[in-house]
Amino acid sequence: MITDEARAWAQQTYPDYVFDVGRRDIIKYAHAIGETDPVHFDAAAAHEAGYSDIVAPPFFPYVIRMHAAHLVPRDELAPDGSATADVPPVGATRAMAGEIHMELGAPVVAGDVITVKKRILEMYEKEGRSGNLVFVKMEFTFLNQQGDLVAREEFTRIYR
């Protein structure tokens, strides 16, 4: 399943994605996950806690990654909503999430400008019960405007 074309795809360089973090983004995410701590909604509470503005709950970088992957023109999306540029040319018709590891760093606060860097770490095949599987392990590095690590995520997508 992994052809020379697929190997070349895995070697590509992805452009950085820049995300301006707004208060509304943080508030929407905090509400969505049921967060109640006022540092996520009220600037005065955030300042009192030592932050420059409202602070995002942990794992907010995932929201940024989803923006990076899915805010593309509709004709660049597969029927399932995946960005076609993120799908390796392996002839697989189905994809599923695999293992995820997330390392958190500096907190994300409103006003931050986060840069996401993406690269393919590895691509390999395994035999599954229903046939060959292709594993694509990606790394996403999130840096704030000072160059501080906000998060690093390793994510494996499985194609069959």
Structure characterization notes:
This protein is α+β, with helices and mostly antiparallel strands. The protein is built from 4 helices and 5 strands; from the N terminus they run H-E-H-H-H-E-E-E-E. The chain has a domain at about 5-20 and about 65-160: Hotdog Thioesterase (Thiol Ester Dehydrase, Chain A, Roll). It has helices spanning about 5-10, 25-30, 45-50, 60-70; strands at about 15-20, 95-105, 115-130, 130-145, 150-160. The protein has a 5-stranded antiparallel β-sheet. A hairpin with a 2-residue loop joins strand 3 and strand 4 (about 130-145). It starts with a helix and ends with a strand.
List the helices and strands and how they pair.
Blueprint: H1 4-10, E1 17-20, H2 23-32, H3 43-48, H4 61-70, E2 95-104, E3 113-128, E4 131-143, E5 149-159
Distance, first to last CA: 9 Å
Report Rg.
18 Å
How many beta strands in the DSSP annotation? 5
Averaged pLDDT: 91
Low-confidence stretches: none
**What percent of residues adopt helix (DSSP H or I)?**
10-25%
The CATH top-level class label of the domain at 4-21 and 67-159: Alpha Beta
Helix and strand succession? Answer: HEHHHEEEE
- Going across the major beta sheet, what is the strand order? 1-3-4-5-2
Give the name of the CATH architecture of the domain at 4-21 and 67-159: Roll
Estimated structural class: alpha+beta
Main beta sheet? 5 strands, antiparallel
Q: Could you say what the CATH topology of the domain at 4-21 and 67-159 is called?
A: Thiol Ester Dehydrase, Chain A
- Shape, per Cα inertia axes: elongated
Number of helix segments? 4
Q: Can you identify the CATH superfamily of the domain at 4-21 and 67-159? A: Hotdog Thioesterase
Beta-strand content bin: 25-35%
